[in-house]
Design a protein that fits this description.
The protein has 2 domains: about 130 residues, Rossmann fold (3-Layer(aba) Sandwich); about 90 residues, Winged helix-like DNA-binding domain superfamily/Winged helix DNA-binding domain (Arc Repressor Mutant, subunit A, Orthogonal Bundle). Helix 2 packs parallel to helix 3 and helix 6 packs across helix 7. It is built from 8 helices and 12 strands. Strands 2-1-3-4-5 form a 5-stranded parallel beta sheet, sandwiched between helices. Strands 6-7-8-9 form a 4-stranded antiparallel beta sheet, with helices on one face. With about 240 residues, it is of the alpha/beta class.
């Protein structure tokens, strides 16, 4: 899923890019409103994050232009302006949410996941309405763990596990290849993207974190088993 981040402060811009990259999004950045509108037409992202006060064109201006042609795109305003009237205006223009600086990583993650859930549900509805199969978001079960990609969540008994977009890609890839060892290169190609430079430590760290959340016993994993010299496997 592509996301466009329009933010004139370089530190905030790169910080947001890192957050979205870690969640599994294909993140692109723009330093001002004019570049944001150009990139939006070129990339056609599913989600856009807009700073309110930017050179070239404000976030409000960009939002107005996007909503003229793309009513289904998820839009998040991220700004230091905290007055209630600013939030109201942003929402009236069609934004999905409004995050006020300074913000924490967990807050951004929670809000972008909420917007993503809406995007996935709407995309599935459009695909079903057009006679498609629903966009491949069907729930599946892995040894008692029910994974629901369109909710970015998994369930076991009375427990609920929050998942990132990348988490769902990893679990779905293992599920589709049940009983087979999935190579590291395949994980990077399908869950990180073909243009990502492979880093085995990055994959192992992500798998370790995912195990801690979804395995009954992370020290003796049953869902994501290590295949030494190859990658990982789900039995």
């Amino acid at each position: 899923m592509r996301v466009l981040i329009a933010e004139d402060d370089p530190h905030t811009r790169e910080g947001l890019r890192e957050i979205f990259d870690a969640e599994g999004y294909e993140a692109h950045v723009a330093p001002d409103g004019a570049e944001a509108m150009r990139l939006f037409g070129e990339l056609e992202p599913e989600v856009v994050c807009l700073d309110v006060m930017m050179p070239g064109a404000s976030g409000y201006d960009v939002c107005r232009e996007i909503r003229k042609t793309s009513p289904g795109v998820g839009i998040l305003f991220i700004s230091a302006k905290s007055e209630e009237i600013d939030k109201v205006l942003g929402l009236e223009l069609g934004a999905d949410d409004f995050i006020v600086k300074p913000f924490g990583v967990k807050e951004v993650v929670a809000r972008i996941r909420a917007v993503t859930r809406r995007m996935i549900v709407e995309r599935r509805a459009r695909a079903s309405g057009a006679g498609g199969a629903g966009g491949g978001c069907e729930a599946f079960e892995m040894s008692g763990l029910k994974v629901v990609p369109e909710e970015l969540r998994a369930y076991r008994g009375g427990q609920t596990f929050e998942l990132s977009l990348r988490d769902t890609k990893i679990l779905a890839l293992l599920y589709r290849n049940r009983g087979k060892a999935v190579s590291r290169d395949t994980f990077f190609d399908e869950c990180w993207g073909f243009d990502y430079l492979p880093n085995s430590r990055c994959l192992d760290q992500h798998i370790s974190q995912l195990r801690r959340r979804v395995e009954v016993d992370p020290k003796s994993p049953q869902l994501i088993r290590t295949v030494h010299g190859v990658g990982y496997r789900f039995e």
